[in-house]
Design goal:
Blueprint lengths: L2 E6 L4 H12 L3 H4 E7 L5 H6 L4 E4 L5 H7 L5 E4 L9 H18 L4 E5 L4 H4 L8 H14 L4 E7 L1 E2 L2 H4 L6 E2 L5 E5 L6 E5 L1 H14 L1 H4 L3 E4 L2 E4 H12 L3 E5 L2 H6 L5 H14 L6 H11 L7 H7 L6
Parallel strand pairs: 1-2, 1-4, 2-3, 4-5, 5-6, 6-11, 7-10, 9-13
Antiparallel strand pairs: 8-9, 10-12
Helix pairs in contact: 1-9, 5-7, 11-15
């Protein structure tokens, strides 16, 4: 009999990747019956999902809806969206806590949580404004203390962000060149992941061998890239001349339309301490080697999702 796998964020990047991977994996599609949990079951994306999986209403601010949506569930994939602004850390943490508490209440056996490293802890308190990382790290600590089996997925920088956040993508300079500007060194390394294409490969590994990976974290990325490498890959993919350039911190913040302090600290922290701390390279290599399928390179991602530089 198939185990029910409840997927939060099923219409978003991570959840849709998990859902599609399980449905298309011969072993996992027999082992698990997917239940997509979404806040709006009447959305176009939710309606499309109904032809493939069970779709149920679940609102993180409505505990009764969570209790209904997690009834009979064996395994949960849980993720939370960042909440920027005043109190954002506690809002996101409480959303994650609500899922975990109801999962325990309803007898769920296993939770896989999409987490991130604690920038404050790893930096020894130097960087304190990356609230969306801290919220997830705090939720991970809470989940680890609950009477439920758990594993964790900690994704790197989404390749999709080069499309979704144009201020992080190449910008055209007056001389006609395209510039990727950061206040950090062009040699600073960042782990990159194709979130939609590859989240399922990492979660799929846990779903296939939950006992093996209980308590472990997949620091999920294809590999580490520095900005010079990213610019070179983009240049080849687009046929444009793209360069990586280091700019003053204030200039970078002025180019960032929202949460400039959080973005600036994220990049500064990564350069100084490593995205996942001092063992970042080894952690990423382990996760990629244990994924259920080879993660996509940036080159492959841009072939499928070309950058539009105009």
């Amino acid at each position: 009999m198939s185990r029910i796998l409840a997927v939060f964020g099923a219409t978003g990047q991570q959840g849709s990747s998990v859902l599609d991977f399980v449905l298309n994996d011969p072993e996992l599609s027999q082992k698990y019956k997917v239940r997509a949990i979404t806040r709006d079951v009447k959305s176009d994306k939710a309606k499309t999902l109904k032809s493939k999986v069970e779709v149920v209403h679940g609102d993180l601010l409505d505990r009764a809806s969570l209790e209904t949506s997690l009834t009979g569930v064996h395994t949960v994939f849980a993720m939370t969206n960042p909440s920027f602004g005043p109190g954002g850390l506690e809002i996101e943490y409480n959303n994650a806590k609500a899922i975990a508490d109801v999962a325990v209440q309803k007898g769920v056996e296993y939770i896989i949580f999409s987490t991130l490293p604690s920038v404050t802890e790893i930096s020894g308190g130097k960087y304190t404004k990356v609230s969306h990382f801290e919220a997830k790290a705090k939720a991970e600590r809470y989940i680890r203390g609950l009477p439920i089996k758990s594993a964790f997925y900690s994704p790197g920088f989404f390749m999709e962000n080069f499309h979704a956040m144009p201020f992080l993508a190449p910008q055209k300079a007056p001389d006609g060149k395209w510039v990727m500007a950061r206040h950090t060194s062009p040699k600073a390394q960042v782990p990159l992941i194709n979130a939609v294409g590859d989240t399922g490969k990492f979660i799929g590994a846990i779903l296939a061998e939950p006992d093996r990976f209980e308590g472990k974290t997949f620091h999920a990325a294809t590999r580490l890239y520095n900005l010079e490498e990213v610019a070179a890959v983009m240049s080849k993919a687009t046929g444009k001349t793209i360069i990586a350039e280091q700019v003053p911190l204030d200039d970078f913040k002025k180019s960032t339309p929202f949460e400039p302090d959080a973005f600036a600290e994220t990049f500064s922290y990564g350069e100084e301490f490593g995205y996942y701390g001092p063992d970042t390279e080894e952690l990423v290599a382990w996760a990629a080697a244990n994924a259920r399928g080879r993660p996509s390179t940036l080159e492959e991602f841009l072939q499928v999702h070309p950058l539009q530089l105009v």
